[in-house]
């Protein structure tokens, strides 16, 4: 039993070390955008005439999907296709939907099933091999809305302070307010009015140099990240192993105590037998002496 406990302790320590390595790998591979492209890809310009940053378009859609759409769905409001926030107006939406994140270091093209080590190589593959699938005629560049949607907060892993430019702030706020009016016209009813006010509070009020209200102040949808899932699973595994270890450990102590009790009982029986034999021999000798 002692050997079994030693083996189990070694396995337990190895698992703890594996958990530590997994947490390091997951945290290092996670970023606000999840394997973003390098800075060189931020100004994407195709030779065929398309000038639209895929990275900033992805950041804009991430913000729309996380900080706007849950509230639109809650109101059961249908956004018009004329609204620039509509998915059909994202130049890269179809390609983004054909990305398959199979593993941490494995991305797969949904069109031709080719795999890539990083997302940026899959993006280049889309640009080179599947450009003809872009809806260039009807779609617009979602990256153009980044100023209104605060994309830099999603793109920058380490926010840095910069001097406030009142002119740029004014342009972004005007664009933000025009999005609110075009996507949620107040004349369309209570839901549109409520979403119009929500959009102004969620995105537009933060366009100021005073630093009063923060972007996304109304919150967004809660997503279970990969890191949280990994941590939860590993904690459950460690708890299960801990209880198994305690069960085996207590079982070994119990069996050891039972063995000691068995040995002590056997020793008592032997001592009683010896005493009985001595008494019997003494009685026999005494009888012989009396007879003589």
Structure description:
With 292 residues, the protein is mainly α. Helices cover 59% and strands 4% of the residues. The protein contains 10 helices and 3 strands. It has helices spanning 2-29, 54-67, 69-74, 93-97, 119-129, 146-149, 152-155, 166-183, 190-204, 226-291, and strands at residues 99-103, 106-109, 115-116. A 3-stranded antiparallel sheet has the order 1-2-3. A hairpin with a 2-residue loop joins β1 (99-103) and β2 (106-109). α1 (2-29) runs antiparallel to α10 and α8 packs antiparallel against α9 (190-204). Residues 26-47 have low confidence and may be disordered. This is TRANSCRIPTION FACTOR C2H2 FAMILY-RELATED. Residues 1-29 form the signal peptide. Residues 109-130 form the C2H2-type domain. The chain crosses the membrane at residues 227-249. Keywords: Membrane, Signal, Transmembrane, Transmembrane helix.
List keywords for this structure.
mainly alpha, 292 residues, 10 helices
Topology overview:
Layout: H1 2-29, H2 54-67, H3 69-74, H4 93-97, E1 99-103, E2 106-109, E3 115-116, H5 119-129, H6 146-149, H7 152-155, H8 166-183, H9 190-204, H10 226-291
Antiparallel strand pairs: 1-2, 2-3
Helix pairs in contact: 1-10, 8-9
Transmembrane segments: 227-249
Signal peptide: 1-29
Domain C2H2-type: 109-130
């Amino acid at each position: 039993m002692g050997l079994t406990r030693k083996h189990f302790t070694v396995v337990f320590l190895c698992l703890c070390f594996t958990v530590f390595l997994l947490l390091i790998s997951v945290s290092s591979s996670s970023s606000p955008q999840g394997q973003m492209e390098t800075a060189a890809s931020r100004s994407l310009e195709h030779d065929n005439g398309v000038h639209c940053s895929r990275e900033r378009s992805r950041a804009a859609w991430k913000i729309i999907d996380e900080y706007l759409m849950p509230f639109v769905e809650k109101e059961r409001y249908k956004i018009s296709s004329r609204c620039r926030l509509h998915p059909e107006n994202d130049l890269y939406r179809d390609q983004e939907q054909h990305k398959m994140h199979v593993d941490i270091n494995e991305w797969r093209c949904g069109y031709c099933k080719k795999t890539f080590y990083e997302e940026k190589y899959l993006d280049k593959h889309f640009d080179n091999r599947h450009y003809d699938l872009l809806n260039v005629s009807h779609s617009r560049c979602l990256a153009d809305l980044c100023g209104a949607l605060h994309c830099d907060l999603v793109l920058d892993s380490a926010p840095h302070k910069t001097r406030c430019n009142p002119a740029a702030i004014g342009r972004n706020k005007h664009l933000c307010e025009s999005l609110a009016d075009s996507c949620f016209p107040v004349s369309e009813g209570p839901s549109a009015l409520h979403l119009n006010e929500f959009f102004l509070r969620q995105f537009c009020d933060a366009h100021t140099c005073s630093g009063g209200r923060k972007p996304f102040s109304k919150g967004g949808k809660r997503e279970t990240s990969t890191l949280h899932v990994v941590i939860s699973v590993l904690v459950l595994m460690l708890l299960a192993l801990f209880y198994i270890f305690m069960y085996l450990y207590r079982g070994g102590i119990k069996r050891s105590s039972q063995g000691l009790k068995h040995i002590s009982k056997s020793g008592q029986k032997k001592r009683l037998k010896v005493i009985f034999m001595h008494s019997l021999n003494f009685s026999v000798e005494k009888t012989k002496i009396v007879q003589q």
